[in-house]
């Protein structure tokens, strides 16, 4: 299966058309999250930089970085070993003149947890990634917490689509990280690894801001990075992604006096002018499953605070 | 290492609301008569205020203020 990704012309005025091979097990490169991320990467001035993408997917970002951001070198890895092979084919097809500047790390790599990945990261200027921020609906401990809040899983949410690991992460496995409490454990794990293995590298990450940008900024600061927002836009909530995760977070604060301190941020409109909580969003979905909902996606750069 | 052992939960960097979420998540499925969980709080978190937010659950944890 092939997809066509034809966003507007880049800010430099140069039109770009990427036509990556995109099988069902890969995150859809035509998803607006990808467009948002690439706008943020474009704003980051990555010319001449050595870049590593954690979770390289189809390789569409790698090709974009080489072809349109003038990156000096792009490397990357993925948990799904099929994707690194796919990314290599796509970069060869989409940026044929730059293939020598693409250094994929083969095999299944969780975050940067192989010797080859860590060796490459140590020679990297900027690490980028768009990692899942919702716990796997099938996670046992998360399910127990959901039941404790009397929140039901959406119909079909426990069925695994081909690209399941692009949307959800094994929540309990990352529970040693404090920000796992709001779905940011996997992202925090990456930040901590970078502090250890690439202390001078900047990081640029793409976030769905359903828990609010404030707490995402706190994640960066707690892990030694100064955050700045490079770009953001309002996108439609993926109809296939269960939002009960966010509902249970809000409900768990009932009666604590902290209800107003943590309210998830969805919108009723594509302009992002009518904010609603996760509980309110869930109510609308319960009334009509086709109700369009929206949320912010933001590209956030973290600069090592020590630099 | 954030959870230094099975009886300690690190909440460094978390403001009060996500701290309460983390504590409630940690207590889910845990025996009510188990030894109280040690909770290492962010220096900015107020222990008494957090205990009030936890209500009866506060009896099942030991809130430890991390030095600033």
UniProtKB/TrEMBL annotation, chain A:
Q: State the superkingdom.
A: Bacteria
Q: Which Gene3D superfamilies match?
A: Vaccinia Virus protein VP39 (3.40.50.150)
Q: Which PANTHER family match?
A: METHIONINE S-METHYLTRANSFERASE (PTHR47087)
Taxonomic source organism:
Roseibium aggregatum
Q: What is this protein called?
A: S-adenosyl-l-methionine--l-methionine S-methyltransferase
Q: Which CDD domains match?
A: AdoMet_MTases
Check the record and name the InterPro entries matching this protein.
Answer: SAM-dependent_MTases_sf (IPR029063)
TrEMBL record, chain B:
Q: Which domain of life is it from?
A: Bacteria
Q: What is the protein's given name?
A: Uncharacterized protein
Organism (species): Roseibium aggregatum
């Amino acid at each position: 299966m092939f997809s066509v990704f034809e966003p507007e012309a880049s800010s430099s005025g140069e039109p770009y058309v990427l036509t990556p091979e995109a099988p069902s097990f890969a995150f859809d490169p035509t998803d607006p999250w990808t467009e948002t991320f690439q706008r943020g990467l474009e704003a980051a001035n990555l010319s001449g930089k050595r870049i590593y993408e954690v979770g390289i997917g189809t390789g569409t970002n790698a090709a974009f970085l080489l072809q349109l951001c003038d990156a000096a070198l792009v490397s990357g890895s993925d948990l799904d070993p099929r994707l690194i092979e796919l990314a290599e084919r796509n970069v060869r097809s989409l940026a044929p003149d730059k293939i020598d500047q693409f250094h994929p790390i083969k095999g299944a790599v969780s975050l940067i947890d192989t010797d080859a990945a860590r060796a490459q990261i140590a020679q990297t200027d900027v690490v980028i990634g768009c990692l899942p921020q919702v716990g796997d609906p099938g996670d046992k401990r998360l399910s127990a917490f959901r039941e404790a809040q009397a929140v039901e899983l959406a119909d079909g949410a426990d069925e695994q689509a081909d690209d399941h690991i692009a949307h959800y992460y094994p929540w309990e496995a990352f529970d040693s990280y404090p920000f796992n409490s709001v779905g940011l454990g996997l992202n925090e794990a990456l930040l901590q690894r970078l502090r250890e293995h690439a202390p001078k590298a900047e990081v640029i990450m793409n976030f769905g801001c359903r828990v609010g940008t404030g707490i995402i900024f706190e994640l960066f600061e707690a892990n030694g990075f100064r955050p700045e927002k490079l770009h953001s836009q309002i996108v439609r909530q993926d109809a296939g992604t269960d939002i009960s995760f966010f509902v249970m977070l809000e409900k768990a604060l009932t009666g604590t006096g902290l209800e107003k301190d943590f309210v998830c941020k969805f919108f009723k409109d594509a302009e992002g002018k009518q904010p609603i909580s996760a509980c309110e969003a869930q109510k609308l979905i319960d009334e009509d499953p086709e109700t369009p909902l929206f949320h912010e996606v933001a590209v956030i750069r973290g600069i090592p605070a020590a630099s | 290492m954030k959870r230094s052992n099975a009886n300690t939960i690190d909440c460094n960097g978390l403001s009060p609301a996500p701290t309460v979420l983390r504590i409630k998540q940690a207590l889910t499925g845990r025996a009510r008569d188990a030894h109280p969980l040690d909770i290492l709080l962010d220096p900015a978190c107020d222990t008494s205020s957090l205990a009030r937010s936890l209500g009866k659950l506060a009896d099942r944890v030991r809130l430890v203020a991390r030095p600033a």
